[in-house]
Amino acid sequence: MLLAPFTELPYQPTVDALLAGIDTEYKDDSFRKELLRLDPNSASDRRIIIKNYIIKEQAYLSYRHKFLLLIKLKEALENEFYDFGALFEYDYETDESSASPWLASEIHTPRSFFEDIYELVSEEWKQDIEKAALEDPSTW
What domain range includes position 94? Predict the structure, then answer.
């Protein structure tokens, strides 16, 4: 069984884990200001957000973790009813805020934000994904 990094718990990837790199809650104010200068609706800024914050934050993951996380994102993207906007909102049931410094209402198309993440992550992690795809995940 594949364990979550730095734990003894089974790894259970979630789509919202991809937003960890833009979580401003425990970062200094300059990090938040720097991030908020970028527009998540601008194609060029979104690319910077994804490459410099989202992908960079996931660098500690092994190739197997990356593979499973990408599968989870792909499954969500294939589900036409998946609510990507909810990942940018406060969760009143768990009393947890979103990792995102932007509200869903500030992102014109939350689904396309994650489609762009999928595209860039697939490129960036290509070798890791190919390596993991050659293995049997049931043996992890």
Answer: 15-139
